[in-house]
Design a protein that fits this description.
227 residues; mainly alpha; 5 strands; 9% strand
């Protein structure tokens, strides 16, 4: 029974690697679907806009290090285009002065464009690819986190962390992936999860029966009695 279970398990596994679903393998199909569902659940732009409203009037005055050669001019251009005073210092860093709330709303708007596949709008606005724009926004907010931590300004540091991890990073990472809601695909999601559970149990019992057939069992250690 163990050998039959492992053999049939291997056959199904091989079938999952062949392009049998619209030119995609079963593994690719499932991976694409769950990436699409993950993208939908990771969409926090509306929350970021609401949070940004609370930080209007909070002054930003920090040096940003883009970490790439000649990237300081691009960071300066992006921030300046959104109402901040930004200028290269000369050592690769950019001195930024502006309003935290307004800059955050501008960053969220750009992240939203890339999130929704409207990269062309970002190219028109900045002359850069969507991912480059979001990366430069990310460097600015990443340096803000460190600066606010140094100043012990916890609310601002937490908000800057929210912008990097919940808004900018998902926008960057999910480029080219369609956004889908689980409520619109309940049947296929349920079937995939059921298959995953059954397939896992299938493998586990196959190993169990194989070991039992070989005489390998797990038993409790005998209790050693004192003489």
């Amino acid at each position: 029974m163990g050998l039959i279970g492992l053999f049939s398990f291997s056959i199904v596994f091989c079938l999952c690697l062949f392009p049998v679903i619209g030119g995609k393998s079963g593994v690719q199909f499932a991976d694409d679907l769950f990436n699409q569902l993950a993208k939908n659940s990771a969409y926090h732009v509306p929350s970021a806009v609401k949070k940004a409203e609370q930080f209007k009037g909070f002054v930003v005055d920090v040096s940003v290090n883009p970490r790439w050669p000649e990237a300081d001019k691009w960071v300066s251009g992006i921030l300046a285009a959104n109402g901040a005073s930004a200028s290269p210092v000369g050592d690769g860093r950019v001195r930024v002065r502006g309003d935290l709330g307004l800059l955050s709303m501008a960053a969220a708007a750009d992240a939203d464009l890339l999130y929704k596949g409207q990269e062309g709008e970002l190219r028109k606005k900045y002359g850069l690819s969507g991912r480059e724009v979001i990366y430069y926004w990310w460097t600015a907010f990443d340096d803000l986190i460190r600066r606010y931590v140094q100043l012990n300004r916890v609310p601002e540091a937490d908000f800057a962390k929210f912008m990097t991890t919940r808004v900018l990073e998902p926008s960057y990472n999910f480029v080219g992936i369609e956004q889908r809601k689980i409520s619109e695909n309940p049947t296929i999601v349920t079937l995939l999860l059921a298959f995953y559970v059954i397939y896992t149990v299938w493998y586990g019992f196959s190993i169990l029966y194989l070991f039992e057939g070989l005489g390998i069992r797990v038993t409790k250690a005998s209790v050693k009695k004192e003489a």
